[in-house]
Amino acid sequence: MGLLSAGTPLSWDDTKKVADHIRSHGITQFLHIWDRLKDKNGDELLWGDEIEYMVVVLDNETKNAKLSLRQTEIFTKLNSIVNNLSLETEDSIAMPTFHPEYGRYMLESTPGSPFTGSITDLLSVEKNMRYR
Predict the structure, then answer these.
(1) Whole-model pTM?
(2) Phi/psi at 72 (5° precision)
(3) 3-state secondary structure at position 30
(4) CB atoms within 10 A of CB 128
(5) Counting beta carbons within 10 angstroms of the beta carbon of residue 102, is it exposed (0 to 12), middle (13 to 18) or buried (19 or more)?
């Protein structure tokens, strides 16, 4: 989903009112970008993934799971761990990054650097996701 850094999302009713405008302008913007870049050659394809986490509290006795609103606390702790690991790890290993998500019960992780189209990168994606 990505980080909502400013503003608030529209309600569904408000979104429906402007959906045609958004759709039309989105298509126009895509076509302008496509027209500008369609003949560009030689750029390497870089790509990534994201894992979204829901923070829950499990009560084993009652078999209940409840959303936990501890995103900020967990995010701070994860960043501390990643910073400490990066001090102890060789520079060639890219540490994952963690981001707050829209809900206070959500976090997201992405690879520390983008993947390329190489076989080595393609074979490393699953391992990278497990690491995170």
Answers:
(1) 0.63
(2) -60, -45
(3) helix
(4) 19
(5) middle
The first and second tokens of residue 34, run together, are 């496509």
d(CA 94, CA 112): 5
Residue with tokens 């690991």: 85
Look up residue 29 and give its DSSP letter.
Answer: H
Task: Write the pLDDT tens digit of every residue in 20-74.
Answer: 998 999 899 989 988 998 888 888 878 889 999 999 999 999 999 999 999 999 9
**Calpha distance 46→113 (Å, rounded):** 9
For residue 24, CA distances in Å to 19, 34, 50, 59, 123 come to 9, 15, 28, 48, 39
Rounded to an integer, what distance in angstroms lies between the CA atom of residue 110 and that of residue 51?
Answer: 7
Distance between CA atoms of residues 74 and 105, nearest Å = 10
Distance between start and end Cα atoms, the chain: 18
What backbone phi and psi angles, to 5 degrees, belong to 83?
-60, -45
